[in-house]
Structure to design on (539 residues):
């Protein structure tokens, strides 16, 4: 089955003239409708500069070059609703949270002004009409604006930041790229995990912090777990996840391993610094690779995704206080034709990076597009380390403008036939069954052929666009009795979801998570926030 392309709105920010460095044009480069193409002139304001400098003084763990001391920004009072309550109390608890929110809102208002907001509204309307997310890509052609945390943009207080959304899939891009080469079709995750030189380990005892070896083990375990979930799935090919680890290899060893062309993902964890040719990655204390050198082998070997747990991977190098164009590791790799690159805007703690990588890898194993997988992993960082901390803002995703974000084939393009030896093989004379809503007006969905696949992704038999519903959430199927004891045929529910399915039992609701249970007629079920009743006609 063909999966329709996700609608895409691509914007570019470019200086208008060299003599007016704070005068910019915002262009629509790509849109799902011709009426969305427009441009808008904007001046960068001093209050925005002051907010950005305050942000750096508060959130930058190592401090950026040439950042002067600035007074704290005088923030407006917390937003209130009609009852006098804070719009988002959990985000208004501290000055740091209010600064995060205030800068995010101001960046949004600066970018989405006038016709650009109209372009976004029209593009979102088209995406909603198609029942799909909108892909939003931002190209920043002024290197001095790259360091800003555009990922925290939000339309207003109480609204979700753009990079946390699964309805608007946010990434950065650049049009200064080599063409994307033909990409091979992938059916498995094949990861090369490179553990480079860790400069911080030289200054801490062996029992402090998360060691790189533990990080590799944890990542391999989460990938295997994701693959095991899919292996039980009866209507799709299981995801095979292979991970090979290189411990502080020489550049030649790394290149030789990539040249086997066995990998579609590179994870690098170790020391890195900004430099003019895409930064430097210290694979060993005495050996490094720059971004330009690494890009050659990644594109030649068709690595689709490169992820860097290294400081400053998404930051350009600076000279005399000015950012050097196209000098960040992420930009250089995209420029040379790597489809997707994820780097860190600032230094990130080991435990934060591992939390992100684990959730990101699990989402990739579930066949999600790369930009959606990043959004899910970022949500996890915010939940663990809170809105007013910078952890969730640190990952920066760059995607090639020609890349659709597909790492491995989506489920709707995989095998949809139930194999003959499946445990949910359907015998003749399957008893008729259906599920129905309990609210009025009632809706009913028949279970045809003794099987119903439930999820929020197109291609399921029942598509539920409700909070908490996974892409492939659950399966209801009929299995005849094979015991020969005249026992009645029964239906089963098998859960595949991230958070489980709730079932009403004699003692109230209980959760079924990634397991199989029998279903009685008139059993109430909750898929996320969506509640239904399962009914067998003959009951």
């Amino acid at each position: 089955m063909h999966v329709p392309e996700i609608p895409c709105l691509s914007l570019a920010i470019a200086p208008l003239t060299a003599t007016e460095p704070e005068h910019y044009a915002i262009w629509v480069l790509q849109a799902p409708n011709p009426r969305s193409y427009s441009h808008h002139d904007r001046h960068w304001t001093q209050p925005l500069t002051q907010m950005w400098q305050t942000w750096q003084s508060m959130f930058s763990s190592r401090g950026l070059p040439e950042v002067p001391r600035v007074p704290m920004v005088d923030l407006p009072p917390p937003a209130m609703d009609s009852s006098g309550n804070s719009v988002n109390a959990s985000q208004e608890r501290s000055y740091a949270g209010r600064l995060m929110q205030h800068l995010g809102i101001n960046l949004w208002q600066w970018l989405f002004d006038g016709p650009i907001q109209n372009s976004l509204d029209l593009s979102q309307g088209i995406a909603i009409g198609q029942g799909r997310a909108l892909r939003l890509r931002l190209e920043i052609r002024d290197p001095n604006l790259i360091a800003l945390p555009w990922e925290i943009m939000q339309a207003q207080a109480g609204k979700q930041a753009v990079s946390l959304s699964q309805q608007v899939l946010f990434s950065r891009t650049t049009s200064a790229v080599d063409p994307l080469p033909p990409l091979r079709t992938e059916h498995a995750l094949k990861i090369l995990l490179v553990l480079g030189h860790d400069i911080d380990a030289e200054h801490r005892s062996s029992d402090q912090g998360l060691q790189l070896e533990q990080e590799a083990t944890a990542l391999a375990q989460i990938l295997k777990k994701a693959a095991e979930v899919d292996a039980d799935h009866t209507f799709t090919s299981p995801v095979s996840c292979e991970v090979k680890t290189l411990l502080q290899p020489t550049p030649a060893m790394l290149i030789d391993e990539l040249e086997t062309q066995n990998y579609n993902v590179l994870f690098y964890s170790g020391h890195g610094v900004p430099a003019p040719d895409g930064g430097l990655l210290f694979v060993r204390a005495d050996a490094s690779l720059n971004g330009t050198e690494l890009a050659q082998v990644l594109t030649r070997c068709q690595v689709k995704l490169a992820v860097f747990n290294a400081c400053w991977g998404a930051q350009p190098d600076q000279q005399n206080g000015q950012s050097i164009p196209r000098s960040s590791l992420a930009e250089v790799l995209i420029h040379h034709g790597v489809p997707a690159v994820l780097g860190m805007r600032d230094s990130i703690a080991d435990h934060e990076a591992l939390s992100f990588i684990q959730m990101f890898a699990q989402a990739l194993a579930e066949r999600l597009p790369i930009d959606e997988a990043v959004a899910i992993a970022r949500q996890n960082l915010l939940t663990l380390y809170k809105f007013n901390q910078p952890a969730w803002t640190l990952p920066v995703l760059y995607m090639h403008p020609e890349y659709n974000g597909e790492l491995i084939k989506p489920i709707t393009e995989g095998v949809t036939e139930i194999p003959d030896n499946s445990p949910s093989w359907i015998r003749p004379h399957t008893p008729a069954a259906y599920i129905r809503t309990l609210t009025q007006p009632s809706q009913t969905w028949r279970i045809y052929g003794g099987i119903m696949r439930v999820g929020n992704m197109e291609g399921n038999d029942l598509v539920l666009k409700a909070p908490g519903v996974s892409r492939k959430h659950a399966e209801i199927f009929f299995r005849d009795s094979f015991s020969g004891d005249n026992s009645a045929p029964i239906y089963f529910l098998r859960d595949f979801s991230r958070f489980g399915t709730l079932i009403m039992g004699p003692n109230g609701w209980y959760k079924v998570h990634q397991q199989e249970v029998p279903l009685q007629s008139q059993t109430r079920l909750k898929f996320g926030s969506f509640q239904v009743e399962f009914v067998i006609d003959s009951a």
